[in-house]
Amino acid sequence: MADVIEAKSAQAKGAREEVTADLSAEIVKSVEKWPEDRVTCRRIGANSYRCNWWSVADNSRDDNPRMSGLLVTTHRVRKSRFLNVTKSMGGLVIIEQDGQASN
Predict the structure, then answer these.
(1) How many CB atoms lie within 10 A of CB 41?
(2) Is 98 helix (H, G, I), strand (E, B) or coil?
(3) Torsion from C-alpha of 76, 36, 48, 80, nearest 10 degrees
(4) Number of domains composing the chain
């Protein structure tokens, strides 16, 4: 019985895809952003990432717009994208999930 388990384990290990490095930090540096944006990026799969573009929240509608600090949310996600990213000799190849290429 132990021989069967070991054989199945060896097949499973050989069938795995090559693990690539996490490119999140490089993606944050290379995506287009507004000067006031803060971009966060998280790896969600082998070559899949979710990036959020955060900007300062508009507090003009708040009942107390002077309230600041950790008491209220100061930023909001203005844009969010799922990206497929690979690294080539020329740099990062970034493709939005809907198929549009992005620099």
Answers:
(1) 21
(2) coil
(3) 40
(4) 1
Q: What's the CA dihedral at 21, 22, 25, 28 to 10 degrees?
A: 120
Write down the residue that tokens 């190849």 correspond to.
93
Q: CA 69 to CA 30: how far, in whole Å?
A: 29
Highest mean pLDDT range out of 25-29, 61-65, 95-99? 25-29
Q: Which domain holds residue 25?
A: 21-58+72-103
| Cα 102 from Cα 75, distance rounded (Å) | 24
Ramachandran class of 57: left when φ > 0, alpha when ψ lies in -120 to 50, beta otherwise: beta
Please, what is the end-to-end C-alpha distance for the chain in angstroms? 53
Q: C-alpha dihedral over 69, 72, 42, 88, to 10 degrees? A: -60
**Local structure of 45: helix, strand or coil:** coil
pLDDT above 70 coverage of the chain, percent: 62
- Inter-residue contact 83 to 49 (CB < 8 Å): yes
* Domain-embedded: residue 8: no
